[in-house]
Amino acid sequence: MVCCAEFITHRHMRFAIAASEAGSFRKAASRMNVKESTVSRRIRELEIALGLEIFVRLHNGVTVTPAGTAFMRMARDAIMAFDSALSRAADPLISGDSAVFPMVLEGRWIITRLAGGNARD
User: What is the pTM of this model?
Assistant: First the structure.
């Protein structure tokens, strides 16, 4: 059960993706111009909210768990859709918030679905 899925932001997912690509929180922090503690804290919040371990912490970096690998696939898709929605919303030919709203619902559904819940009641 997800206790805090509504608190997961695109930043949580971006930090997790960066850490998986970099192989360490330190390198991910450097790439994202934040402190290592920020990356570590946000990823821990994400793991708690999802109720699963995304990374195995090693003395020289991190590796992605099998559950983390599944999450990374969905997180990358969600971030691509989120970025696309923002680009489309900024397009003067698209009006209102309608380009962003569906992504918010889909992002919540993806995260809740991964953790075993169902946000589409």
Answer: 0.69
* Beta-bridge partners for 63: 56
| 86's tokens | 């923002």
Whether residue 121 has pLDDT greater than 70: no
What is the residue-wise DSSP string for the chain?
A: --SSGGG--HHHHHHHHHHHHHSSHHHHHHHHTS-HHHHHHHHHHHHHHHTS--EEEETTEEEE-HHHHHHHHHHHHHHHHHHHHHHHHHSTTS-TTTTTHHHHHHHHHHHHHHTT-----
* Apex 113 CA angle, 110 and 114, nearest 5: 85
Comparing 35 with 87, the larger pLDDT belongs to: 35
pLDDT of residue 10: 84
